[in-house]
Amino acid sequence: MAAHDIAVTGLGLVTPAGIGTAASWSGVRAGRPTAAYDPVLADNPVRISCRVPDWDPDTLLGARRAHRLDRFSQFALVAAREALADAGLDPATWDGARVGVVLGCADGGPGTVEAQHRTLVEHSPDRVSPLLLPMQLPNMLAGQTAIEFGATGPNLVVATACASGTTAIGTARDLLLLDRCDVVLAGGSEAMITPLVMAGFARMGTLSRRTDDPAAASRPFDLDRDGFVAGEGAGVLVLERPADARARGARVRARVTGYGASADAHHVTSPHPDGVGLEAAMRGALADAGAQASDVGHVNAHGTATRLNDLAEARVVHRVLGDPLVTSTKGVTGHLLGAAGAVEAAFTVLALEEQTVPPTANLDTPDPDCEIKVAAALTGTRFDLALSNSLGFGGQNAVLALATA
Q1: What is the distance between the alpha carbons of residues 80 and 100, in angstroms, rounded to a whole number?
Q2: Residue 210 phi/psi, 5° resolution?
Q3: Around 268, how many Cα atoms within 13 Å sit in the side-chain half-sphere?
Q4: Radius of gyration of the chain (CA)
Q5: Whether the predicted pLDDT of 2 surpasses 90
Q6: Secondary element (H or E) of residue 326
Q7: What percentage of the chain reaches a pLDDT higher than 90?
Q8: Who is most buried in 179, 180, 247, 352, counting CB within 10 A?
Q9: What is the DSSP letter of 271?
């Protein structure tokens, strides 16, 4: 391993494809779309979403704990528990001062805000919960995780819109390389499927209007795509320096070998049409990894199924890398917004482990203007290096280079 590589020793997932890594990966490998009618959005112009199935926080976290947390924090704690168990780490035995938490989200807890605003309007200020702020503030995502596990090292939440999860992993990697921590819980969580937020997305024209056929609505790189389907969930990775992982006999699932980030400085919502910012981030990740474009065998694309994003990203992937095998797992999970990059980084780790590329669901007619090789079916292939791309409103770009263990 190179001196600047970081080991991934644990994964935890809560996604619309299932609760837990095994269930989530199974759904993604099978290409099973999760979009469905959402009764919470019954009065909205777009009434479909990708929800986490069978979510029961009282059972998973205990009723007292669950009721003090917004949904986005609930997701993160369940994912973090799984990641720590997968890594073989026991918080009761570690030096908490050397454990960091770096998580990403785009919005904090809008579900709590909307519910408490209704209480304010329908009743009185005296009825507003004193837990409003502790539940909805974005930083509580990392704060509650630190409290849960006694992690007293660096603790922060990053917000780079839909690139937040990827930015968090890149930031966590830097903390380890700077010897600020020995272990970092890194990833992202999001729970933004609320009437107000979805009305905003619908007014912007970013959501798929294929409400008569929800399962077919999320169609990355397909000629008939018409927007994304909003999802929710969390992904948490345990990151360590390879020497520390080896010293405790941990399994290294993959390596984070490079990270690149940039800003388009172009538009508040649309990517640069030529993808100059994404290209800079991809080339930066490759340079950081000490890799060549020809070394990349797979790209987990941002691939939102919006016309502008897919086309711009495809142009950059083709221009920078040629024709590696590309997938967008958003065809299955929908767009998990600030959690997307973390969940997709975990899927990339699993793809590297299995040497398989999962399918892009609903890819019936590949857009001929997207001149890339998109996996329409589960594909076995040999590759040692993969990129995971994330883009966000405001022109945010973040790219991880991930390699086999």
Answers
A1: 12
A2: -80, 60
A3: 1
A4: 20
A5: no
A6: strand 325-327
A7: 96
A8: 352
A9: P
Both tokens assigned to 34: 């999760």
Q: Cα angle at 56 between 50 and 23, to 5 degrees? A: 55
Residue 271 has pLDDT above 90, yes or no: no
The residues annotated with a catalytic role in the active site are 162, 302, 335
**CA–CA separation, 1 and 127 (whole Å):** 57
Contact criterion met (CB below 8 Å) for 231 and 15: yes
**Predicted local confidence at residue 1, as pLDDT:** 58
Stretch 123-147: mean pLDDT? 97
User: Could you give the dihedral angle defined by the CA atoms of residues 152, 153, 154 and 156, in that order, rounded to the nearest 10 degrees?
Assistant: -30
d(CA 223, CA 221): 7
In the numeric block, the tokens 């990392």 are attached to 142
What is the token pair recorded at 122? 């329908």
Residue 302 is classified by DSSP as -
Please check whether residue 297 is in contact with residue 221, taking contact to mean a CB–CB distance below 8 angstroms: no
> What is the rounded CA–CA span in Å between residue 164 and residue 141?
13
Distance in angstroms (rounded) separating the CA atoms of residues 305 and 316: 16
Q: Is 270 helix (H, G, I), strand (E, B) or coil?
A: coil
Q: Which amino acid is at 363?
A: L
Please say whether the beta carbons of 397 and 383 come within 8 A.
no
